[in-house]
Amino acid sequence: MSTAATPELQALTQRLALGTAQFGLAYGINNHGGQPTAAAVAEVLAAATAAGLTLLDTAAAYGNSEVRLGELAGKYSIFSIITKIPAGPAAQVTQHLAASLARLRRQRLYGVLFHAFGPMQAEPGAWSALRAARAAGQVGRIGVSLYHPHEAEWLLAEGWDINLVQVPYSVLDQRFAAVLPRLAAQGVEVHVRSAFLQGLLLRDPTDLPEFFRPLAPKLTQLRALTAAAGVPLPAALLLFAAYAPGVARAVIGVDSVENLRENLTAAAYAHAVEALRPALTGLAETTDTFILPYAWPPRP
Fold it and tell me: Which of 46, 222, 235, 264 has the fewest CB atoms within 10 Å, i.e. the most exposed one?
């Protein structure tokens, strides 16, 4: 990669995980190119290796993402991997984990997350199965992907020995801001996703789909703030999430080397974005239907 290995870049790559939903699916509100080819996936992983990224985030539900990563396992063993599986009875969880390990061609994973809090909460055997996998050395960190702050509050109150969670976090979606430092203080490694809100925050405010038009004033203000500070919009969004209090890593999804390179150029703006953080914090959106993608209307 042409991006110089500056101390700022090294600091940023240690705070990133490379999301791989794009490797197995046509993913995101701005995705017009579809699923990348196997050659494009290999090219992205090579560039990520060169840049110093060391962690991949995937899931059994991401189409054939696990299979693709498994096919490249020998060449890219430098990467640690987090995957996600559905919660259910203990035997089912054990089966799902074994299947993921087989597809990924790994004997051990950095982390395993349940896809959702509700099914995990409803089935105590699910958590017991993940604890057993951690005790057996199949996985280093175990936890759950969260969607609502009250789920994190429940985990803290119950004292579960979770040591990894993933939550949505962006300039618009700051619902978890208060609870993340508390999770981190309990030894929970916090990963954030959706820094670009599936691409919505990069859309031209004058060209939003009708459903999102009420967000135009905030998106316009966001562009004005970043432009006045001389910070590219994608850099501001990524750094706002990656360096939020309590956050260990931000998951970035890319579908090309160019896309990865653009993300990594954010490193040069770390100090400028910290200066912007108070103003960006003021753009938090409180209407859940705009910030929860599962509440969005289907794409035409």
Answer: 46
